[in-house]
Write a structure and sequence with these properties.
Elements lengths: L9 E4 L7 H7 L4 E5 L2 H5 L2 H10 L4 E5 L8 H14 L3 E6 L1 H16 L8 E2 L9 E5 L11 E6 L4 E6 L7 E4 L9 H20 L5 H23 L4 H21 L3 H13 L3 H15 L7 H14 L12 H13 L13 H16 L13 H11 L1
Parallel strand pairs: 1-9, 2-3, 2-4, 4-6, 5-8, 6-9
Antiparallel strand pairs: 7-8
Helix pairs in contact: 1-3, 4-5, 6-7, 6-8, 6-10, 7-8, 7-11, 9-10, 9-13, 10-12, 10-14, 11-12, 13-14
């Protein structure tokens, strides 16, 4: 088997590690940061905490705190304008996946100009971008170690992806204390998102021994802690394991990509503005069920068992395992975490759903993740799964 890998970033992990931001920022030898975050973190004072920390190192900052759940092309452009107007020379991405996605888009625009849509796809970013420090405040996206930025283009009701290793932040600071104030619903959705990253990268056709190592450890960490963390976000051990699991899952899918769950969830989020993690969680059991036929291969059967072992509270022995048990476990986990049981329960109106289902399926089929899903997937398969998850 042939494969290549690289992890070029500097990662700082540990409780209280936000205090190391001045030290990390000083290493960039820059003078002014644009902090990209969201309104909730600004409201509870954490954005100010970042700004004040950098002041101790003599670094000025200005904040953009208008990122939304599914960040748009317009948000990226507005943040880029502020970066230029303020005279900033590096970016601190502080928050969940949305601020990190916006930060990557801004880094491209302020370096090379144009519109973010000009860089859609892979290999369009011509070279290095302005440096970024990523500080995740949710255990979910793993965006601090991924080469992707996902932005919603409302003119097309479409989620576009920009993919380039140049988008990798120079530094990532992961502080489990920062995820202790996450609302319960957000913790659940982000936690399942991280689990999906680990699961899909593990069964991906592009998986390698390197990526599988990170995928499986991520599944173990998330599976053993997600219930405790969602129940009590101040559970220090659970929070630490969730954040580490999210990190490892991010590394895994950066190298092995994902699958049908993400291909299908992006159109749902783009059209109905459902949070990405919620869309993933709703779709996950159905895609796992669809992929069961791939377990005729002994290697995939073993992977299904390992995933089941990680996510089940009381797993059966390998000898007694049936692939359908994984679908059952994931559905039960969604219920326990109070994830909506279908798109209808998530607020999607039936008439509108029927109007756009064909477009959603066609958009899903454009995703590169379809190609590496373990089971070959056709347009009619996507349509059927969409109807099942409604």
């Amino acid at each position: 088997m042939d494969f290549t890998f690289s992890i070029p970033q500097n990662v700082v992990f540990g409780a209280g590690s936000l205090s190391k931001l001045p030290e990390v920022a000083a290493k960039l030898k820059k003078s002014k940061a644009l902090i990209i975050s969201g309104p909730h973190l600004e409201k509870i004072g954490l954005v100010s905490k970042c700004s004040e920390a950098m002041q101790t190192a003599g670094i000025e900052s200005v904040s953009f705190c208008r990122t939304e759940a599914n960040p748009s092309v317009e948000t990226v452009e507005a943040a880029a304008e502020l970066y230029v107007e303020s005279g900033a020379d590096f970016i601190v991405a502080f928050g969940g996946g949305s601020p990190l996605d916006v930060a990557k888009g801004v880094a491209v625009l302020v370096t090379y100009g144009g519109k973010i849509t000009d860089y859609e796809g892979g290999g369009k970013v011509p070279g290095p971008v302005v440096p970024m420090i990523a500080i995740p405040t949710t255990a979910g996206t793993g965006s601090e170690v991924t080469a992707f930025s996902v932005i919603t283009d409302h003119s097309r009701n479409y989620k576009l992806s920009v993919a380039s290793n140049y988008l990798l932040p120079a530094y990532a600071i992961l502080d489990p204390e920062l995820i202790s104030t996450v609302p319960k619903g957000t913790a659940a959705a982000c936690g399942i998102d991280a689990m999906v990253h680990a699961l899909e990268s593990y069964v991906s056709k592009a998986a390698s021994p390197f990526s599988e190592m990170f995928s499986l450890r991520a599944l173990e960490l998330i599976g053993e802690s997600i219930r405790d963390y969602v129940k009590d976000r101040k559970n220090k051990t659970a929070a630490e394991r969730m954040l580490m699991g999210s990190l490892f899952a991010g590394i895994a899918f950066s190298h092995a990509r994902l699958g049908d769950v993400h291909a299908m969830s992006h159109p749902i989020s783009a059209i109905f503005d459902i949070p990405h993690g919620v869309a993933n969680a709703i779709i996950l059991p159905e895609v796992v069920k669809f992929n069961e036929t791939s377990t005729k291969n002994p290697c995939m059967l073993e992977k299904y068992y390992q995933i089941y072992r990680c996510v089940s509270e009381s797993p059966v022995s390998k000898e007694n395992f049936q692939p359908s048990m994984l679908h059952t476990e994931l559905s039960a986990l969604n219920q326990k975490l109070e994830i909506p049981a279908g798109l209808e329960k998530a607020g999607v109106e039936k008439g509108r759903f029927e109007t756009v289902i064909q477009k959603m399926a066609e958009d899903a089929m454009k995703s590169g993740n379809i190609i590496i899903n373990p089971r070959e997937t056709r347009l009619e398969d996507i349509l059927e799964m969409y109807r099942r998850v409604y």
